[in-house]
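User: Just a sanity check before I run the rest of the batch. Below are the structure tokens for the first item. I only need the designed sequence back.
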């Protein structure tokens, strides 16, 4: 699950996405569910949110953008790849690294806008890590640090 703007977003693999207001006591099913969506959902990748938009990536490469406040689907894009690494949201950009080592960078926006692509050249199953203006990528053979 991820948390933003007072809501916890939880995925039940292959089944649902639920926005939950934290707090409360006892059975809060009727009082603390802000919204829920049934349907195909990720089994591995965690969602990411900037508080306004929520991005959900399926292993098979379908990326869906939802309105984080009400769960309305805004857009969907087929990235035509397989993903084991969760998306990363940094400075308004979403980094999507596929199992083949390719990374697509998109704008965290109400429409799909691709900002760039990069090829690593080896398998990647781990999510990216960011620290001190550096990107760390763990491939199947090497650990990479990308910086200016």
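Assistant: Here's the designed sequence for the first item:
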């Amino acid at each position: 699950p991820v948390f933003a703007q007072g809501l916890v977003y939880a995925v039940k693999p292959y089944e649902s996405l639920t926005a939950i207001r934290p707090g409360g006591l006892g059975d809060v099913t009727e009082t603390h569910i802000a919204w829920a969506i049934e349907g195909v959902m990720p089994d591995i990748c965690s969602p990411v949110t900037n508080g306004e938009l929520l991005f959900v990536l399926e292993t098979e490469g379908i990326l869906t953008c939802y309105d984080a406040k009400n769960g309305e689907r805004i857009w969907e894009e087929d990235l035509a790849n397989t993903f084991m690494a969760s998306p990363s949201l940094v400075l308004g950009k979403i980094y999507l690294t596929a199992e083949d080592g390719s990374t697509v960078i998109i704008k965290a926006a109400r429409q799909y806008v691709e900002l760039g692509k990069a090829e690593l050249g080896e398998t990647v199953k781990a999510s990216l890590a960011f620290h001190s203006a550096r990107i760390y990528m763990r491939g199947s053979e090497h650990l990479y640090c990308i910086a200016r």
